[in-house]
From TrEMBL:
Taxonomic placement: Bacteria, Pseudomonadati, Verrucomicrobiota, Opitutia, Puniceicoccales
SUPFAM superfamilies for the chain: Periplasmic binding protein-like II (SSF53850), Winged helix' DNA-binding domain (SSF46785)
Name used for this protein in its record: LysR family transcriptional regulator
Top-level taxon: Bacteria
Family designation: Belongs to the LysR transcriptional regulatory family.
InterPro entries cross-referenced by the UniProt entry: LysR_HTH_N, LysR_subst-bd, WH-like_DNA-bd_sf, WH_DNA-bd_sf
Keywords (A to Z) from UniProt: DNA-binding, Transcription, Transcription regulation
Domain HTH lysR-type: 5-62
Protein backbone atom coordinates (compact mmCIF):
# COMPACT_ATOMS: atom_id res chain seq x y z
CA UNK A 1 0.00 0.00 0.00
CA UNK A 2 1.24 3.50 -0.91
CA UNK A 3 2.29 5.43 2.17
CA UNK A 4 1.57 9.17 1.88
CA UNK A 5 2.45 12.18 4.01
CA UNK A 6 -0.26 14.36 5.53
CA UNK A 7 -0.26 17.62 3.54
CA UNK A 8 -1.39 19.65 6.57
CA UNK A 9 1.59 18.39 8.54
CA UNK A 10 3.88 19.26 5.64
CA UNK A 11 2.43 22.77 5.47
CA UNK A 12 2.91 23.28 9.20
CA UNK A 13 6.51 22.03 8.97
CA UNK A 14 7.42 24.18 5.93
CA UNK A 15 5.88 27.29 7.48
CA UNK A 16 7.81 26.63 10.69
CA UNK A 17 11.07 26.40 8.73
CA UNK A 18 10.29 29.70 6.98
CA UNK A 19 9.27 31.60 10.12
CA UNK A 20 11.52 29.93 12.69
CA UNK A 21 8.74 30.44 15.22
CA UNK A 22 5.87 28.28 16.48
CA UNK A 23 3.99 31.44 17.44
CA UNK A 24 4.28 33.02 13.98
CA UNK A 25 3.49 29.72 12.26
CA UNK A 26 0.33 29.35 14.34
CA UNK A 27 -0.70 32.91 13.49
CA UNK A 28 -0.13 32.46 9.73
CA UNK A 29 -2.06 29.17 9.62
CA UNK A 30 -4.79 30.35 12.03
CA UNK A 31 -4.08 27.47 14.42
CA UNK A 32 -2.89 27.15 18.01
CA UNK A 33 0.78 26.65 18.91
CA UNK A 34 -0.19 23.30 20.37
CA UNK A 35 -1.71 22.24 17.03
CA UNK A 36 1.47 23.19 15.19
CA UNK A 37 3.63 21.36 17.72
CA UNK A 38 1.49 18.22 17.41
CA UNK A 39 1.55 18.35 13.59
CA UNK A 40 5.34 18.50 13.50
CA UNK A 41 5.66 15.82 16.18
CA UNK A 42 3.26 13.51 14.30
CA UNK A 43 5.21 14.09 11.09
CA UNK A 44 8.44 13.12 12.88
CA UNK A 45 6.76 9.98 14.22
CA UNK A 46 5.45 9.08 10.77
CA UNK A 47 8.89 9.55 9.15
CA UNK A 48 10.77 8.04 12.11
CA UNK A 49 13.28 10.89 12.32
CA UNK A 50 13.76 14.20 14.10
CA UNK A 51 13.09 17.24 11.92
CA UNK A 52 13.52 20.14 14.35
CA UNK A 53 15.18 20.80 17.70
CA UNK A 54 14.52 23.61 20.14
CA UNK A 55 17.14 25.52 22.11
CA UNK A 56 15.22 27.89 24.33
CA UNK A 57 13.11 29.89 21.89
CA UNK A 58 15.33 29.10 18.92
CA UNK A 59 14.20 26.57 16.33
CA UNK A 60 16.92 24.48 14.65
CA UNK A 61 16.34 22.38 11.54
CA UNK A 62 18.11 19.01 11.45
CA UNK A 63 19.78 17.59 8.34
CA UNK A 64 16.77 15.33 7.81
CA UNK A 65 14.53 18.37 8.19
CA UNK A 66 16.50 20.32 5.58
CA UNK A 67 16.21 17.43 3.14
CA UNK A 68 12.47 17.09 3.70
CA UNK A 69 11.94 20.85 3.37
CA UNK A 70 13.35 20.87 -0.18
CA UNK A 71 10.96 18.12 -1.30
CA UNK A 72 8.03 19.42 0.73
CA UNK A 73 8.16 22.86 -0.92
CA UNK A 74 7.88 21.27 -4.36
CA UNK A 75 5.05 19.00 -3.22
CA UNK A 76 3.02 21.85 -1.73
CA UNK A 77 3.64 24.10 -4.74
CA UNK A 78 2.51 21.36 -7.12
CA UNK A 79 -0.62 20.76 -5.04
CA UNK A 80 -1.43 24.46 -5.04
CA UNK A 81 -0.78 24.66 -8.77
CA UNK A 82 -3.08 21.70 -9.46
CA UNK A 83 -5.85 23.27 -7.40
CA UNK A 84 -5.50 26.63 -9.19
CA UNK A 85 -5.51 25.02 -12.64
CA UNK A 86 -8.64 23.01 -11.87
CA UNK A 87 -10.37 26.06 -10.40
CA UNK A 88 -9.28 28.02 -13.44
CA UNK A 89 -11.13 25.56 -15.68
CA UNK A 90 -14.21 25.25 -13.47
CA UNK A 91 -14.51 28.97 -12.76
CA UNK A 92 -13.33 30.42 -16.07
CA UNK A 93 -11.70 33.78 -15.39
CA UNK A 94 -12.85 33.92 -11.76
CA UNK A 95 -9.59 32.92 -10.17
CA UNK A 96 -6.86 34.99 -8.55
CA UNK A 97 -3.72 36.39 -10.14
CA UNK A 98 -0.85 37.86 -8.12
CA UNK A 99 1.32 40.23 -10.11
CA UNK A 100 4.59 41.88 -9.13
CA UNK A 101 6.11 44.86 -10.95
CA UNK A 102 8.55 47.71 -10.47
CA UNK A 103 7.08 51.18 -9.92
CA UNK A 104 8.09 52.08 -13.50
CA UNK A 105 6.27 49.05 -14.88
CA UNK A 106 3.25 49.83 -12.69
CA UNK A 107 3.03 53.30 -14.17
CA UNK A 108 4.03 52.79 -17.80
CA UNK A 109 3.40 49.12 -18.68
CA UNK A 110 0.67 47.64 -16.49
CA UNK A 111 -2.17 50.08 -17.38
CA UNK A 112 -2.22 48.92 -21.02
CA UNK A 113 -1.84 45.27 -20.00
CA UNK A 114 -4.59 45.42 -17.38
CA UNK A 115 -6.99 47.19 -19.72
CA UNK A 116 -6.86 44.29 -22.18
CA UNK A 117 -6.64 41.59 -19.51
CA UNK A 118 -9.79 42.89 -17.82
CA UNK A 119 -11.68 42.48 -21.09
CA UNK A 120 -10.67 38.79 -21.16
CA UNK A 121 -11.14 38.05 -17.44
CA UNK A 122 -13.39 40.71 -15.86
CA UNK A 123 -14.06 38.53 -12.79
CA UNK A 124 -10.42 37.67 -12.02
CA UNK A 125 -9.20 39.00 -8.69
CA UNK A 126 -5.89 40.80 -9.22
CA UNK A 127 -3.35 41.79 -6.59
CA UNK A 128 -0.36 43.91 -7.59
CA UNK A 129 2.84 44.16 -5.55
CA UNK A 130 5.16 47.06 -6.47
CA UNK A 131 8.81 46.32 -5.64
CA UNK A 132 12.31 46.25 -7.11
CA UNK A 133 13.54 43.24 -9.09
CA UNK A 134 15.56 41.47 -6.32
CA UNK A 135 12.57 41.46 -3.97
CA UNK A 136 10.17 40.38 -6.72
CA UNK A 137 12.43 37.46 -7.65
CA UNK A 138 12.51 36.30 -4.02
CA UNK A 139 8.71 36.45 -3.86
CA UNK A 140 8.47 34.54 -7.15
CA UNK A 141 10.76 31.78 -5.85
CA UNK A 142 8.62 31.49 -2.71
CA UNK A 143 5.43 31.38 -4.84
CA UNK A 144 4.12 34.51 -3.11
CA UNK A 145 3.42 36.05 -6.53
CA UNK A 146 2.54 34.30 -9.78
CA UNK A 147 4.13 36.56 -12.40
CA UNK A 148 6.43 39.56 -12.11
CA UNK A 149 7.55 42.17 -14.64
CA UNK A 150 11.23 42.75 -13.95
CA UNK A 151 14.53 44.01 -15.27
CA UNK A 152 16.22 40.67 -15.96
CA UNK A 153 19.48 40.06 -14.05
CA UNK A 154 22.31 38.09 -15.65
CA UNK A 155 22.12 35.21 -13.15
CA UNK A 156 18.80 33.57 -12.36
CA UNK A 157 18.05 30.62 -10.08
CA UNK A 158 14.77 28.73 -9.76
CA UNK A 159 13.04 31.30 -12.00
CA UNK A 160 12.06 31.36 -15.67
CA UNK A 161 11.98 34.67 -17.55
CA UNK A 162 10.20 35.32 -20.86
CA UNK A 163 11.88 38.29 -22.61
CA UNK A 164 9.66 41.32 -23.20
CA UNK A 165 11.79 44.20 -24.52
CA UNK A 166 15.07 46.06 -24.09
CA UNK A 167 15.55 49.74 -23.36
CA UNK A 168 18.41 52.20 -22.99
CA UNK A 169 19.19 54.45 -20.04
CA UNK A 170 20.14 57.93 -21.26
CA UNK A 171 21.60 60.90 -19.43
CA UNK A 172 19.12 63.76 -19.01
CA UNK A 173 19.55 67.23 -17.55
CA UNK A 174 17.66 70.46 -17.10
CA UNK A 175 17.70 72.81 -20.13
CA UNK A 176 19.73 75.29 -18.06
CA UNK A 177 22.43 72.79 -17.08
CA UNK A 178 25.86 73.41 -18.60
CA UNK A 179 25.77 70.01 -20.37
CA UNK A 180 22.70 71.18 -22.30
CA UNK A 181 24.75 73.87 -24.04
CA UNK A 182 26.57 71.30 -26.18
CA UNK A 183 24.34 68.24 -25.72
CA UNK A 184 27.27 66.02 -24.74
CA UNK A 185 29.46 65.28 -21.72
CA UNK A 186 32.38 63.04 -20.80
CA UNK A 187 31.91 60.40 -18.11
CA UNK A 188 34.68 61.92 -15.97
CA UNK A 189 32.73 65.16 -15.85
CA UNK A 190 29.41 63.41 -15.21
CA UNK A 191 30.92 61.58 -12.23
CA UNK A 192 31.45 64.95 -10.54
CA UNK A 193 27.78 65.90 -10.84
CA UNK A 194 25.06 65.29 -8.28
CA UNK A 195 23.19 62.20 -9.54
CA UNK A 196 19.48 61.69 -8.85
CA UNK A 197 18.96 57.94 -9.19
CA UNK A 198 16.48 55.15 -8.58
CA UNK A 199 16.83 53.02 -5.43
CA UNK A 200 20.30 51.64 -4.72
CA UNK A 201 18.90 48.13 -4.30
CA UNK A 202 17.55 48.10 -7.85
CA UNK A 203 19.20 46.58 -10.93
CA UNK A 204 18.85 49.97 -12.63
CA UNK A 205 21.16 51.54 -10.05
CA UNK A 206 23.56 48.60 -10.39
CA UNK A 207 23.80 49.00 -14.18
CA UNK A 208 24.52 52.72 -13.87
CA UNK A 209 27.17 52.07 -11.24
CA UNK A 210 28.75 49.39 -13.48
CA UNK A 211 28.95 51.91 -16.31
CA UNK A 212 30.97 54.29 -14.15
CA UNK A 213 33.21 51.46 -12.96
CA UNK A 214 33.80 50.45 -16.59
CA UNK A 215 35.25 53.94 -17.06
CA UNK A 216 37.27 53.53 -13.84
CA UNK A 217 35.12 56.17 -12.15
CA UNK A 218 32.99 56.39 -9.02
CA UNK A 219 29.86 58.47 -8.49
CA UNK A 220 30.89 61.08 -5.96
CA UNK A 221 27.49 62.50 -5.04
CA UNK A 222 24.09 60.88 -5.48
CA UNK A 223 20.66 60.68 -3.89
CA UNK A 224 18.16 57.81 -4.21
CA UNK A 225 14.44 58.04 -4.86
CA UNK A 226 11.79 55.37 -5.34
CA UNK A 227 9.82 57.29 -7.96
CA UNK A 228 10.82 58.03 -11.56
CA UNK A 229 8.42 60.98 -11.60
CA UNK A 230 10.10 62.51 -8.55
CA UNK A 231 13.52 62.01 -10.18
CA UNK A 232 12.36 63.80 -13.32
CA UNK A 233 11.01 66.74 -11.34
CA UNK A 234 14.32 67.24 -9.49
CA UNK A 235 16.27 67.08 -12.76
CA UNK A 236 13.92 69.63 -14.33
CA UNK A 237 14.74 72.18 -11.61
CA UNK A 238 18.47 71.49 -12.12
CA UNK A 239 18.94 69.81 -8.74
CA UNK A 240 21.01 67.11 -10.43
CA UNK A 241 21.31 64.89 -13.51
CA UNK A 242 20.05 61.36 -14.04
CA UNK A 243 20.14 58.28 -16.24
CA UNK A 244 16.56 57.38 -17.17
CA UNK A 245 14.91 55.06 -19.69
CA UNK A 246 14.40 56.85 -23.00
CA UNK A 247 10.73 55.80 -23.25
CA UNK A 248 9.91 57.26 -19.82
CA UNK A 249 11.25 60.73 -20.69
CA UNK A 250 10.38 61.09 -24.38
CA UNK A 251 7.48 63.49 -23.68
CA UNK A 252 9.63 65.73 -21.46
CA UNK A 253 12.48 65.76 -23.98
CA UNK A 254 10.18 66.58 -26.88
CA UNK A 255 8.56 69.32 -24.76
CA UNK A 256 11.98 70.76 -23.86
CA UNK A 257 11.70 70.39 -20.06
CA UNK A 258 14.51 67.79 -20.12
CA UNK A 259 17.52 67.50 -22.43
CA UNK A 260 19.13 64.29 -23.67
CA UNK A 261 22.92 64.33 -23.31
CA UNK A 262 25.29 62.16 -25.34
CA UNK A 263 27.84 60.30 -23.20
CA UNK A 264 29.79 58.42 -25.89
CA UNK A 265 29.44 55.06 -27.61
CA UNK A 266 28.88 52.74 -24.61
CA UNK A 267 25.17 52.27 -23.88
CA UNK A 268 23.43 51.23 -20.68
CA UNK A 269 20.88 48.64 -21.76
CA UNK A 270 18.27 46.91 -19.63
CA UNK A 271 16.47 43.69 -20.59
CA UNK A 272 12.91 43.45 -19.34
CA UNK A 273 11.06 40.19 -18.87
CA UNK A 274 8.18 38.50 -17.09
CA UNK A 275 9.21 35.89 -14.55
CA UNK A 276 7.65 32.91 -12.82
CA UNK A 277 8.93 29.97 -10.74
CA UNK A 278 10.64 27.22 -12.75
CA UNK A 279 8.51 24.49 -11.20
CA UNK A 280 5.31 26.35 -12.00
CA UNK A 281 2.92 25.19 -14.72
CA UNK A 282 1.12 28.29 -15.97
CA UNK A 283 -2.67 28.41 -15.83
CA UNK A 284 -4.82 29.70 -18.69
CA UNK A 285 -5.18 33.02 -16.87
CA UNK A 286 -1.42 33.35 -16.40
CA UNK A 287 -0.69 32.36 -20.02
CA UNK A 288 -3.13 35.03 -21.20
CA UNK A 289 -1.57 37.71 -18.99
CA UNK A 290 1.89 36.78 -20.26
CA UNK A 291 0.72 36.94 -23.87
CA UNK A 292 -0.80 40.39 -23.37
CA UNK A 293 2.48 41.59 -21.80
CA UNK A 294 4.37 40.36 -24.86
CA UNK A 295 1.95 42.17 -27.18
CA UNK A 296 2.24 45.44 -25.24
CA UNK A 297 6.05 45.07 -25.17
CA UNK A 298 6.02 44.61 -28.95
CA UNK A 299 4.34 48.00 -29.30
CA UNK A 300 7.03 49.54 -27.06
CA UNK A 301 9.79 48.38 -29.41
CA UNK A 302 8.80 51.23 -31.75
CA UNK A 303 9.03 54.27 -29.45
CA UNK A 304 8.19 57.81 -30.46
CA UNK A 305 11.01 59.84 -31.94
CA UNK A 306 12.93 61.69 -29.24
CA UNK A 307 14.08 65.18 -30.08
CA UNK A 308 17.80 65.93 -29.90
CA UNK A 309 17.26 69.67 -29.33
CA UNK A 310 19.42 71.43 -26.78
CA UNK A 311 18.75 74.77 -25.14
CA UNK A 312 21.09 76.50 -27.58
CA UNK A 313 18.96 75.61 -30.61
Amino acid sequence: MLETIDSRQLLAFCTLVQTGSFTETARLLSLTQSAISHSVKNLETDLRCQLVTRTGRKINITDDGEELYKDAQNILNQMQGARMRIQDRVNWGRGRLRIGASTTACQHILPNVLREFNECFPDCILTITPADTPHLLDMTRRHEIDLSIIVSPSDLKEVEVKPLFSDELILVTSPIHEFAQTGRARMAKIAQERMVLYNKGSLTFELIEQNFRHNKLLMQNYIELGSMEAIKELVKINYGVSFLASWTVENEINAGSLVKISTGQRKIVRNWGISYAKDKKLSITEETFLGICEAVAGQMQSPKKISNKTSTE
